[in-house]
Each structure stands twice: as structure tokens, then as C-alpha cells.
């Protein structure tokens, strides 16, 4: 499997969950992968799972200095970025009347602002044939009680994909977004079994998604298999937001 042979990929938010699965899949397909995360311990565990060849750097995506340091490292060690994946995100539940300014700013800051500037800072190292894969959510398509800010932030990711598709096409850079439905990551470990079953019942396929299934979709968008695909939202949700 060498669909990303000789490619250099940066996965922002690659220390766990979907981001880690993407980094693992990209490495298996021949890419040299750099990942970021907020804590060194998490990155060390991720590197052990990804295997030889992967590299990691502590970075808070909401801090411009951290993003710039990551890009400087990649410029020094690789000289370019072929594939950029921005996965870092946060979610908090609160109804409209209960949402605080801090909750609003925190979610918009990570899910939109940090994503925006991660792409901006990476662009100098990207050129003809490069690809950007943003990780959105079907939350940007549907209404979910208690998640108005999170869902709005993911709708913004979809909107940015459209605009950047137009802006970056002359530079030969494709931009797409993969939008997962409920996915069985560590954040679901504390969810009671009856609640998991209730959520799965809302999904036509009848179960939560797996991180490796999201990674497979990200691989398609990152590789030449999707060479004539740009500006799209690829929903990987078991049909939840489609019917």
C-alpha cells in the first residue's frame, strides 16, 4: 500500500482518536507523517502506535507561536508539506440560554480560528499537487440539542472549504472536508451502554463509526485517487445525516 509514497503529511491533532487513526493509515500508505498534540505523553503513546518514521511536536493549535514553530520544524526537516490534515477540535454541551462566553470562545477558537490559521501558516510549504483535508462533522448539517456552538463551528469548516477551494485552485491545491458521524473514540468510553445503544439506533447502519473508517475516507481525499475531487464534504456517518 503506497498511495502516499514519498509524501510528507502534517496531522494537526494527531495524538488520539480520529487524528491518530489518520496518521497510522497515512504512514501505512508510505507517507512521512508529522503529528501535533497538546501533551508530550500523549504524543509519545501515539508515536508508539504509529510506528517508525512518524514525528511529533507539542503544539496548542490555538496558539499562533506553536503553529509557526511546527511549520518551521517541517520546513527544516522536510522542506514542504504535501498533505495537511486539521483535526483538532473541542465540543461542549450547553443549551442556548446556558452557554457562557467562555464556552463560545473556546469552541470557536479551536474549531474555527485555530483551523483557519493552521491552514494559513502551512500554505508557504504547500504547492502544486498538495491537498488539504479538514475534519468537520455532520453536526454542521443537523440540529442537535445543546450543541449550537459546536454545530455552528463545524458549519463554518464546511464554508471555509468552499472558499478555499476557489482561492487555492490556481496554486494546484485541493481542499476537502471529511465529516464523521458519531465515532467510537475515547470520548465515548464514559458514555453508558444504554445511551450508546440509543445513539446507534439513530444510525441507519446501526452502530457507531470506527476511527479507521474515517481515516480511510481521509486517505481517499489526500491521495491521487481523488485527483478530480475538490470542495466536497464527504460524510462518513452510517447514513445518519443523509436520510
Compose a concise summary of this entry.
The protein is an alpha/beta fold and 243 residues long. It has helices at 17-28, 40-50, 64-77, 101-122, 148-168, 193-201, 211-222; strands spanning 8-12, 32-37, 55-58, 83-86, 131-135, 174-180, 233-236.
Structure, described:
The protein has 243 residues and is an alpha/beta fold. It has one domain: NAD(P)-binding Rossmann-like Domain (Rossmann fold). The chain is 42% helix and 14% strand. The chain is built from seven helices and seven strands; from the N terminus they run βαβαβαβαβαβααβ. The protein has helices spanning 17-28, 40-50, 64-77, 101-122, 148-168, 193-201, 211-222, and strands spanning 8-12, 32-37, 55-58, 83-86, 131-135, 174-180, 233-236. It has a seven-stranded parallel sheet with strand order 3-2-1-4-5-6-7, with helices on both faces. β4, α4 and β5 (131-135) form a beta-alpha-beta unit. It starts with 7 loop residues before the first strand and ends in a 7-residue tail after the last strand. The mean pLDDT is 94.
